[in-house]
Amino acid sequence: MRKYFLLLIIFSYSCSSCNSAPGSNSNVDTPTDSVRTIKSGLNYPWEILWGKDDHIWMTERGGRISKIDPKTGTTVFYSTIAEVIANNEGGMLGMVQHPDFLNNGLFYVVYNYRSSGNYLEKMVQMKYENGNMHPVKTLIQNIPAASNHDGSRLLISAGTDPKLFMTTGDATEKNNAQNTSSLSGKVLRFNLDGSIPADNPFPNSPVWSYGHRNQQGLVMVNGILYASEHGPTVEDEVNIIENNRNYGWPNVNGSCDQVDEISFCSVANVKEPIWSSGSSTIAVCGLDYYGSNKIPAWKNCLLMLTLKDASLRALKLNADGKGIASQQTYFKNRFGRLRDICISPAGNVYICTSNGSNGDVLLEISKL
């Protein structure tokens, strides 16, 4: 009897330890006054970014670009690009501002359009001046698109020689992800004028990494580029994106842990994810890094939104930033599907929903 009682104590202690182990997850309740609605009546917002002018810039899938005062929720400016064709997941997608936006007004957008009956994707450099915007030039076009798996996030790296990164989905043609001659299922890399950097891995090609399914989150932290990626029915991923690396799709889902995957990974230069959703998908989306002290629980976390799981995941990075030490879930099923996230210099977090029918909202989180 004493032996049985001792084993029971050991078993109970082990289970308790598992619940707090790195990588484990639980939903965290937050007070109702921790979130403020900035703006309502939105329709499928896709990108939100904290602009260099201290306003929130937003794209909506139907083609609208807006500049919003985060204090009042007032729309200071908006314009619609008529060429944008929204088709299920497709439409107006990612946006990023030029590092010198305050002086030159330049920014970049990705959207889907039709040409000769084909549904395609392009990236365009735009200019905002005198309360108006207009296109400057198309940097890349004729990227295959579909009603699903179009990507696309944009990011500009810091430093004296910044580069422009763009994610593309496989546009439901999964085998194109492994074809380095195709622009589908890739991370692309450009100079800010749209030219191809001389140190890209494939001559005269913007392809930087390949083997991707559908990446909808992108952030760079201390020189490390992280991307969130949708899996099929299993294994959503967070990856560290590196030059000329293969990320496995469609031959690999998540880690290289199945017989066929191990064989493929060994010969195909596959880089495994630092995080996976495991045996199900939660439809990971917008991704940002929290470095502020304002919300201590989120310090040194990748903050990632999910659509299917309708939640925010806080993924605590380990010391070198190359792994996930722990995770927590917030706001599950509180606001519906969550699309994108941005963070102000003051440490306030902004998220937008993706529920449609003009029922979407822009929210501010300033405490937990």
Descriptive notes:
There is one protein chain. The chain is mainly β. The protein has a single domain, classed as Neuraminidase (6 Propeller), CATH 2.120.10.30. It is 8% helix and 41% strand. The protein has helices at 2-19, 101-104, 259-267, and strands at residues 27-28, 35-42, 45-50, 56-60, 64-68, 75-80, 92-97, 106-115, 118-129, 132-144, 154-156, 164-167, 186-190, 207-210, 215-221, 224-229, 237-241, 275-276, 284-290, 301-306, 312-317, 324-330, 338-343, 349-353, 360-365. The strands form six sheets. The protein has a five-stranded mixed beta sheet, with no helix packed on it. Strands 2-25-24-23 form a four-stranded antiparallel beta sheet, with no helix packed on it. Strand 15 and strand 16 form a beta hairpin. The longest helix has 18 residues, at 2-19.
